[in-house]
Design goal:
eight-stranded parallel β-sheet; globular
Length: 502
């Protein structure tokens, strides 16, 4: 008898964190094409149950997947061009005429921004399956119409953030909205077409992965970007003033790692208003995400218990204060409307007894990060002997250095503690000792970033928090490194620790 997704989620298992953008595909960035299917085959051979990805939404300034133009839309960069060629919408010559960059191990976002859309416009001009497009449009009308209008207006406004648009459309006055819908009808249809391509290719890939016994762990930020279709179309759900400017914004308070704290700048939710309609926007967002993925990791879960509110005029996070979030009342409403969902709570950072209590009441597994275990400045809950079964362990996340890089760059006392705790005598063994510790722990699920299986250094780090640009979000895997031997080695280790997919 085949296990349900819920039963799989509750079983001891393992997976690999690999952003879609990092896949070794053609045309400058990872996509939903051949390389993605080969990656699923690799996971299958390696005995893995999960493929964890980063958020798949369209990105803006800074290229961060955690600052998206929409909580529902998909990133056009992930649409595979070869699949469009197979559908007769593009030709190989058109795709190969573009110089996508010489460095196949780094994403060049400027090149993608310049050359991707013209190709997708060509595909749109040749597309004839209007019935399928119209079906997609109707099924997703609750979000795709607003998003498509937002993107059309944004283009005409020189890509400026919506708070800088002309007042009438910025405030979504009915007459202005109708005017733009009529004037930009073709561009609106084009954007919906792009979303149709994204979702069609993604669902085919997900179906293939599920057929191989590989399940997708998705990732959503708790907050949305100020410059997004969500805040523009649903401004009443956020703490904005009468001119739709933020009153307060999100962030984190000062701590031992940052004297000024972190000023994220995302608008905060008006939880009081959301509660009045049963958290309809959040339920819709989670329902859509749980259709896209088999398991969902919610970033900054502690924000549901209490969130840090910073005056919008502040230059740092020092002036902020904690406010109570919706708590278990919100989670109970989500459970009532969606049933028991496969959710992982990202509970890293500053935790209180109230946050821990909410996590226990929710029943969601929290996260453990082994790199945090060896911080000698404080006692750590992240040491493997402190784990409970209901958690997900990582050697590191997209915000950490690679484990190889950690051994080279962490404080000497921290590295010494790790070596003693894990009985490491040779520094070159560090990565695999971390992986073994994660695999051997009681944690229900162990997720290892691919960079650690490849023993890569800091050059392969995905993101450095509180920085913009540089190498952030750019790392790509070398397909030649994904060998049969590596898959077999991972499979043996996964089986050894009772995590191999049945």
């Amino acid at each position: 008898m085949m296990q349900t997704t819920q039963q799989v989620f509750e079983s001891r298992a393992a997976g690999i964190l690999m952003p879609v953008s990092s896949l070794p595909a053609n045309y400058g960035i990872g996509s939903f094409g051949k390389a993605a299917y080969q990656w699923v085959d690799f996971l299958h051979k390696a005995g893995q149950t999960y493929w964890q990805v980063l958020p798949l939404g369209p990105t803006g300034f800074g290229d961060s997947p955690y600052q998206s133009f929409s909580a529902f839309a998909g990133n056009p960069y992930f649409i595979d061009l070869d699949l469009l060629c197979a559908d007769g919408l593009l030709t190989k010559a058109e795709c190969e005429a573009v110089n996508w960059g010489q460095n196949t191990e780094k994403v060049d976002y400027a090149t993608l921004f310049k050359h991707r859309e013209p190709l997708l416009r060509k595909a749109f001009s040749r597309f004839k399956n209007y019935a399928a497009l119209e079906k997609f449009r109707k099924e997703n009308a609750a979000w795709v119409e607003d998003y498509a209008l937002y993107m059309a207006v944004k283009e005409k406004m020189g890509l400026r953030p919506w708070p800088q648009w002309e007042q009438a459309i910025r405030l979504r006055q009915p007459q202005a909205t109708r005017h733009w819908q009529q004037q930009e009808a073709n561009n609106i249809t084009y954007t919906i077409f792009v979303q149709y391509l994204f979702y069609s290719q993604w669902q085919a890939l997900k179906q293939y992965a599920n057929g191989k016994g590989v399940y997708i762990i998705g990732d959503i930020p708790i907050y949305v970007a100020m410059d997004s279709a969500d805040t523009w179309a649903h401004s009443e759900l956020f703490l904005l003033d009468e001119n739709k400017n933020p009153v307060e914004v999100a962030g984190c308070p000062p701590d031992g790692f940052s004297a000024d704290g972190q000023l994220w700048g995302n608008p905060l939710y008006n939880w009081q208003v959301m509660r009045q309609n049963g958290y309809a926007w959040w339920v819709a967002r989670l329902r859509a995400s749980l259709t896209m993925y088999d398991v969902l990791r919610i970033d900054h879960f502690r924000g549901f218990e209490s969130y840090y509110a910073i005056p919008a005029s502040a230059k740092t996070a020092v002036e902020g204060e904690w406010r109570k979030g919706p708590g278990m009342q919100f989670i109970g409403e989500v459970n009532r409307q969606l049933g028991k969902a496969n959710i992982i709570a990202e509970d890293l950072g500053y935790l209180t007894d109230d946050v821990r209590a909410l996590l226990r009441q929710s029943g969601y597994p929290g996260m453990k990060v082994l790199q945090f275990a060896f911080d000698t400045r404080e006692d750590s809950d992240y040491l493997a002997h402190n784990y409970e079964r209901n958690c997900v362990v990582y050697t590191g996340t997209h915000d950490n250095d690679t484990t190889h890089g950690w051994f080279e760059n962490a404080l000497p006392d921290d590295v010494a503690l790790a070596k003693e705790y894990l009985n490491i005598h040779n520094a070159d063994e560090g990565c695999w000792c971390f992986i073994r510790a994660a695999m051997g722990s009681v944690a229900r699920i162990a997720i290892i970033p691919l960079q650690d299986y490849l023993n890569l250094g800091s050059e392969a780090r995905m993101n450095t928090p509180a920085t913009i640009g540089g190498n952030n979000w750019r790392w790509r895997a070398n397909g030649a490194a994904l060998t049969e031997e590596l898959a077999a080695k991972i499979a043996r280790l996964t089986k050894l620790y009772g995590r191999k997919r049945i």
